[in-house]
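[job 0412] stage=fold_complex status=start
inputs:
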Amino acid sequence: MAYDSNNIFARLLRGEIPCNKVYENDHALAFHDINPQMPVHVLVIPKGPYVNLAEFIAGASMEEMGAFMQAVAETAKLAGVEDSGYRLIANNGEDAHQEVPHFHMHIFGGRRIMGRMIKRQD
Ligand code: 5GP
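[job 0412] stage=fold_complex status=done
writing structure:
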């Protein structure tokens, strides 16, 4: 899938729109979600132009992948949920309702009652 270099996270990475940064390394940026669904709701994105996980895996170097996962763990720590626990979600594609076409990981936490998993509806 072609990468849209004007998607909201690309613009945020270029500094065209502000974000509330939690953590940054050479290859990843973490910031608070603008519309938090939990007391802690932080997004972690790679700095490279990847639409989804498949493109990230296909196009990113091992260093980028490692830096991304390191950023996820470090961000959870900085957001104060390392000990209490947190959930990671990466929405990929239409069925998952991915809204922003730049690969990202959600970190949810800060509240005990999160539900166990996705509610079965079939
Ligand atoms: P998705 O549904 O693609 O997995 O999630 C996209 C997330 O990006 C949503 O939770 C939404 O609230 C968040 N978001 C959309 N636009 C912005 C923005 O301009 N700034 C920040 N910080 N978050 C955003």
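[job 0412] summary: Residues 8, 17, 19, 31-35, 43, 91, 97-100 surround guanosine-5'-monophosphate (CB under 6 Å).
[job 0412] exit 0
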